[in-house]
Amino acid sequence: MSRSIFKPLVLALGMTFGASAGAATITDTITQDAYVSFLGSHTYTHDITDGGFVPGSAISGSLQISIYDDARDRFDLLPELVLVIVDSFDFDSGGLTFGNFDNSLGIQALGSLNADGLLQVKVQSLIGDFRVGNSTLSVEVSEVPVPGTLGLLGAGLAALGLVRRKAAR
Q1: CATH of the domain at 70
Q2: I need a labelling partner for 102 at 20 to 30 A (CA). Which of 19, 57, 80, 110 fits?
């Protein structure tokens, strides 16, 4: 490759990838104070479509749920054992906890988010009764290249073609 062609190519590629690189975080918090009885459950859905989410752009994420004793009975000797189910019963993103829940999203939960921007959560009592507080879903998304980026790539390729044509003469 000649020197005259190399410089415009590097410039075009640098502008293209520099303009489209990066990631953003979308956070969805559900404010709640739901009572869950012994062997009962509470289900809710996180919706990140109103936060500028583009389907297919979720890279990673985490889910934090506040779970605390309901303080209804003073002689509650058993700890609260809670099963958190995220989208389906597969322990991909959910799990067992004795208190607050904080876990990264697994591949199936990310797949569900990428499909429609919704994430269903079920909090199930296995032992004891408790309250479910705020639930916060944080999702890192890749920024989708804007149309201007494709324009830069096209301009760079056009310049490369002109330089090559000029060198051929």
Answers
A1: 2.60.120
A2: 57
